[in-house]
Amino acid sequence: MIKKELNIGVDVGGTFIKFGIINENGKLMFRTKIKTLTEGGSDPMLISIIETIDLFLMDSGLTISDIGSIGMGFPGTTDIKNGIVLYAPNIFWKDVEVVKKVREHFSIPVYIGQDSRAAAWAEYLVGAGKGYSCISGITLGTGIGCGLILNGSLYHGGLLAAGEFGHQIVEVNGFPCNCGRNGCLEAYAGGLAILKAAMKISGIERLINKPANEISVSDVFSLAGNGNTEALGIIDSVVKYLGIGLVNLINLTSLELISLTGGISNAPDELLFNPLKRFVQERAYPVVANRVKIVKSILGDDAPLIGASLLHLSQNEK
Ligand SMILES: [Zn+2]
Questions:
Q1: Which of 11, 68, 140, 284 fits a disulfide with 289 by CB distance 3.0 to 4.6 angstroms?
Q2: What is the pLDDT of residues 247-280, one digit of tens each?
Q3: Ligand 1 centroid to residue 212 C-alpha, Å
Q4: Could you please report the per-residue DSSP string of 131-173?
Q5: Where are the strands (E) in the chain, listed by range?
Q6: Residue 182 CA to ligand 1 centre (angstroms)
Q7: Dist. CA 166 → ligand 1 center (Å)
Q8: Residue 137 C-alpha to ligand 1 middle, in angstroms?
Q9: How many A from CA of 225 to the centre of ligand 1?
Q10: Backbone angles phi, psi at 163, to 5 degrees
Q11: DSSP state of 129
Q12: Half-sphere exposure for 14 (CA within 13 Å, toward CB)
């Protein structure tokens, strides 16, 4: 019987809400998604999530009694003890009682967490970090997300906002960041920061054959790969700031492994991954510099969804 070995994962993003029915080994058995419609606020969104789960179960030939739990990942800060999404600016949520409302409908355990933490949790349990006890999963996308697994526990921190890797300061009085502060890593190495810098490359519209504001991160890496010196300068700067961020994280936590995922991590190895590894080897605390493993995610874009479905295994964390 497969009963109860299945859990539902929900990955709530700014563009899509993804749903998966996933077994305990992290294998996605069924998946679906809907567009994220934030106009009416959190209530209509929650109702459409609940309705989609009902339909999804039916389409998959299952009922709620086949499901052990529902786990939901959100792009923001979550209070996992009280089941509340405290602040998720991308979807305009503040203090939303998610767990209570979803549990009222389905009458099975419901868990929530930050999406990047769920992704790291998935890498730890069934992905690139399997077999290690202290790892981090870092998502290099439009912004920079991070989850920390310390001694086998998903770490939230006493004030619930642990792992804000993208908001460590890399320049005093530096560029403004989306968080409202200045000089954060994300403002130098996040996808938006890369695009902002790339729009200033001389003759950019001619080089990419489209309007400058339609440039993508992969366009920037292609230009750098073709030897464009300004694009290479942008990538060098990204490697430097990400490298500083990684070294700070490694020196502070003595992690065994860091798994990278997200659009930027798909850049050609010779432009990003290899120089980043070299930076860490040359600059991290000598005792750990050559021992910490920096790898690419195995689960990729599915990590937050799979991790959300496995959040029931993260309870009792410190
Ligand atoms: Zn910031």
A1: 284
A2: 999 999 999 999 999 989 999 999 999 999 999 9
A3: 25
A4: T-SSEEEEEESSSEEEEEEETTEE---TTS-TT-GGGSBSSTT
A5: 6-12, 16-23, 28-35, 67-74, 77-79, 84-88, 93-97, 110-114, 135-140, 144-150, 153-154, 257-261, 293-296
A6: 7
A7: 7
A8: 18
A9: 29
A10: 80, 25
A11: T
A12: 9
Residue 87 alpha carbon to ligand 1 centre in Å: 15
Using the mean position of ligand 1's atoms as its centre, give its distance from the Cα of residue 43 in Å: 29
Backbone angles phi, psi at 126, to 5 degrees: -135, 10
Q: How far is the CA of 108 from the centre of ligand 1 (A)?
A: 36
Q: Give residue 176 CA to ligand 1 midpoint distance, Å.
A: 8
- Contact between 119 and 139 (Cβ < 8 Å): yes
The confidence score (pLDDT) of residue 89 equals: 86
CA distance 112 to 97: 10
Of 88, 82, 112, 3, the residue nearest 38 (C-alpha): 88
Query: From ligand 1's centre to the CA of 284, what distance in Å?
Result: 23
The Cβ-side half-sphere exposure at 80, using a 13 Å CA radius, reads 28
Digit-coded pLDDT (tens) for 102-153: 999 999 999 999 999 999 999 999 999 999 999 999 999 988 999 999 999 9
SS3 of residue 68 by DSSP: strand
